[in-house]
User: Which sequence fits this backbone?
């Protein structure tokens, strides 16, 4: 996950990754799992306040010596929560499936990717 802030927008980028169990990129089951993660993420992300609260709870329950943030802090999240009240919030959700590429992709994979994209576009709050 990454959160980017500009003068008028906060962009939340959520990436879902599933390591492949066998031949990378060829198993539909692996793709089903990562697409399912993305679809679940869509329903829970449309409130930045709730997302920040969730991240705060995860970070404070995890603090046993090492922070989960690569960059930023809990204080930065609190500042972002206040600043975001006056900004447009944009969500971008992506999937990463090692070994999957656009060449020779099976029809079953294309159908699943299409269904996942459709569920994202039809979710409340998505322009």
Assistant:
């Amino acid at each position: 996950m990454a959160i980017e802030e500009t003068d008028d927008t906060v962009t939340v980028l959520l990436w879902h990754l599933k390591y492949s169990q066998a031949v990378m990129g060829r198993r539909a089951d692996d793709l089903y799992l990562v697409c399912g993660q993305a679809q679940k993420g869509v329903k829970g992300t449309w409130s930045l306040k709730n997302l920040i609260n969730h991240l705060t709870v995860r970070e404070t329950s995890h603090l046993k010596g090492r922070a989960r943030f690569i960059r930023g802090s809990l204080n930065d999240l609190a500042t972002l929560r206040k600043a975001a009240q006056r900004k447009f919030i944009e969500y971008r959700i992506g999937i990463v499936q090692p070994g999957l590429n656009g060449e020779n992709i099976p029809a079953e994979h294309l159908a699943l990717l299409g269904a996942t994209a459709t569920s994202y576009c039809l979710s409340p709050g998505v322009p």
